Amino acid sequence: MKTLDRYIIKLFVQNYVILGIVLAGLYVLVDLIVDLDEFLKAGREHGERLGGVLAGTAWVMADYYGPVLLLIFTTMSGLLVVAAMGFTIAQLQRTREITAILASGISLYRVAAPVLIAGFAINLLVLPVQELAIPELADKLVRSKSQVGQPTITDKPVHYARDESGSLISAASFSAETGEMTDVRIIERDMTGRQTRLLRADSASWSEGDGVWVLEGGRAFVTVSSDNIPAELGGQPIASYETGLSPDVMITRQAALFVRLQSLKQLQSMRKNPALSPAQRGRITQVMWSRFTTLVMGVLILLMGLPFFLTRVPGNILMNSAKAAGITIGAWSAGLVLVQAGGLNPVTAALLPIVIFVPISFYLVSTIKT
Fold first, then answer.
1. Which residues form the domain of 130?
2. Tens digit of pLDDT for each residue in 231-242?
């Protein structure tokens, strides 16, 4: 690697880190001002254990914002790379280093090469974070502000969740982290939708290996009367209930964000679950392909932004930055919308942004005069 490459990459990485810290700081500051009372309330609850309200509040904030900022990194990394590129080249233009580089006979495309390589490498870092770190934090990331400081989304009721056989499962509370339900009611139905059996249990815990809910205090009541009232005298002990409605499927139905937080391996396994509807399986397929699309999209919008900064003669940096921001942010937002578009084949929807952006980005790059 030549000295020029090392120099440009160093500037680029420095700008990326600074912009990342600034973005994270602004997000935390604004969000904290809006919901400070929620954090103070949770801080008081944990204060006795951690040595005071201040320590409790600090722990709660770290517990909440740590996973959220990691998710923001995976979502916004592409735009941060473009911003870092703009600051890097603008800095080279301001110090007239671009002029010196051109005078030495080096092409502007050669200047862009280390920026593109570093940008692609940073975008590539999103994949291990998405595949390894985010799935472990999924339960925390789907919490609401009112649940801040809790380890997971607990005490979520289940209302008539339908499994692959048509049975309806209800529970007073459900924990995705522990895989447990309390006060469980399972209504088994025939092909016409009429109740045939009612299962009751004080609690149920999920057995991943067997694919069953293990029932604590489970009793099965066969419906025998015409008005579908369970015959209490016919109740029989029942130890488990086999279903594809696992905790992951339940939380997928309750929190749409949960699917995006899973690893590719988890998504592949989840897609095979018969308890999911065709629309939900299509959504999972779309999310899987969008991982590849997002990575490529980050490189393409970087190419789109290059022509506005990489010029032979220094121009109006503020105007060029505004134009670049409009195109790159617009393209990034449009790409995210297209990736999640409904009514299209899941694979087609996920790859559509690449098909659209490739000719646009290469055309813009070809306008660079060097």
1. 3-146+284-366
2. 554 578 899 999
What's the rounded Cα separation, in Å, for the pair 98 and 90? Answer: 9
Which two three-digit tokens encode residue 290? Answer: 């969008």
162 and 140 within one domain: no
Question: pLDDT tens, 17-45?
Answer: 999 999 999 999 998 888 888 888 877 87
Same domain, 168 and 202: yes
Per the DSSP assignment, residues forming a β-bridge with 173 are 182
SS3 281: helix
Dihedral of alpha carbons 110, 115, 116, 120, sign: positive
Question: Which long-range contacts does 245-248 make (Cβ < 8 Å, 24+ apart)?
Answer: 245/161, 245/163, 245/164, 245/169, 245/275, 246/206, 246/208, 246/211, 246/273, 246/275, 247/174, 247/176, 247/179, 247/206, 248/176
Name 140's Cβ contacts closer than 8 Å, sequence gap at least 6.
63, 64, 67, 151, 152
- Amino acid (1-letter code) at residue 53: V
Domain co-membership, 134 together with 182 = no
Are residues 243 and 94 located together in one domain of the fold?
no
Residues 113 and 220 in one domain: no
pTM assigned to the model: 0.76
Distance CA 355, CA 341 (A): 15
